[in-house]
Each structure stands twice: as C-alpha cells, then as structure tokens.
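ENTRY TYPE: paired fold submission
RECORD: A
CONTENT: sequence, then structure tokens
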Amino acid sequence: MTINFDDLRHRPILDISTATTIGRVEHLVIDPSDSSVQALTIGKAQDNATVLPWSGINAIGPDAVTVDTPGQLRAPESELEQRATSGDVDPIGKMVLSDDGDHHGTLRDLVIDTDSGSITELLVGDRTLPGRALMGVGDYAAIIDQDQLGG
C-alpha cells in the first residue's frame, strides 16, 4: 500500500498500549541514497522526543499512525534529523532541479510505500517522476537524477 505525504501530514500518532495520542506527523527524514523515508518527525511531542524511526511504526492506517509504545519516539540524533524536525529540508513546495541544472517544477507531494518507507513517486507539477530519481533535498531545492527520468 502507498500513501501520499500530504495525506500523512498532521495524522495523529497513537500509542496502542495506552490508546493515547502522542503526537502528529509533521515532517519526513529522507535518505536520498535509497529514496526512502528514515523517520517521521512529530509535532508537540514530550521530552524532545520528536523523531519516530520508520522501523518503529506499527501501522499506517486511514485515521492514525500506530506505535506499540511511546518508547519508539526519540530525540533527533543527526544534523539531518534536527533539520527535518525544524522543517528546513521539507521537500514539499521546493523547486525541483535535475543534476544537470534543469528546472522541472515544484514538488507537490511524495508517494510512500507504507511497509518499507520507500519513496515510489515524486509528484512534480503535473508530472509523476520515479521516486528513485531523488538525489537530495536542501533548504533551496530538491535535486533529481536526470538519468532516472528516461526518454
């Protein structure tokens, strides 16, 4: 199953051991080396525990993201996680440039495989590009591999 990040953002995160909401999805921590989401960042979390590793997700349902225990949340451990938590490297709304400098539009959304966290598609303007084309995301733009676009 896949989900658009736009549909996942602001979705509550539910601790199924206590049936309580422990936060809401805010941003993504993206590993461009394998075009995947490493973690979700959480708004309004307790004790600076604002990162939910993808491996800590129990399920992504239509109404909530579930975790087995609130212990799945942790503080940011890397510069990338800190930047993602603040929204600095949020890819949505960023200009999309290819590695050879061509402008391809604005990144509207990402399509994510709910089991693996793989980014399967990039929705850029009115085009759908393969997720594997994503090379990096910075505060200015998302960079894609021109060779992955075909044709």
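RECORD: B
CONTENT: sequence, then structure tokens
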Amino acid sequence: LDLYPKRKFPTPATILATPDTRLRAAGLSGAKAAAFKDLARHVIEAKLVPAKLPKLTDAEVSAVLLPVRGIGPWSVDMFLMFALARPDVLPVGDLGVRKGMQMHFNLRSLPEPDKMIKLAAPWRPYRSVGAWYMWRLLEGPR
C-alpha cells in the first residue's frame, strides 16, 4: 500500500495503471503482480462485483472467483470461510485440514477429498467449524 500513499486502498484502475516494475519493487512476485492485475481487470469488466459476493451461493462465488488468475479452490474456500463467514465450507485441498482429519479419524494416510466429504457429513451445516477444529488439533494440547 506504500505504492498508493494518497489512498487507503487503490482502485482497480489504479492497479492496472501501475507498472509491473513498481509492483515487483514493492515485493510482489511476477505471478502475484499478474494475479493482482487480473483481479482488478475482472472488477473493471464487472465480471466480479465485490458487493454482490455476499449475496451469492458458495457455488456462484466459486464460479466468479475461479477464472481470476492466481485464485484456486483453496483461495475460494478461505474467502468463503473467513471473508464471507460461511459456516459450511470443507476445504478439502487444505493440507492442515487433511492432516487433522487423518489424526482425528486415526487414518493411515491423508484422506482424499471424497473420503473427507463422507467423514465430515455429520458436521453439516457447520463444516467450517469442523475444519477449524482440525487445524487446532494439529497444534496439540495447550
């Protein structure tokens, strides 16, 4: 944000106008700079309207975010859980959740997504809470 001292947050147009060299000098990798600009482009082109995201279903949010460069299923799951406070997200691609489920269910190997979905079925409609507990489980006793 030091790149934009006159604004609390830069506008998408400002981000697109920022030379990649300045973004790189600010510490962004080339891939992150490209993702940052692609996100700005999606907002400018109204393919992604931030104010509408809270009103969309989880599947609709995924459909809007996944075409943005650098945003994958894990990023969407984290956005749903922590930005939109969705209670029923099971981040099957998260290594911590996988390890926590392996430990909790005493599995020999890391569970695959389909197994995770079956094991977490009783947690519905609060699988986000279950995921949080899987992360905490890895921290050990306090």
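NOTES ON RECORD B: DSSP finds eight helices and no strands in the chain. Residues 95-139 form one domain.
STATUS: closed
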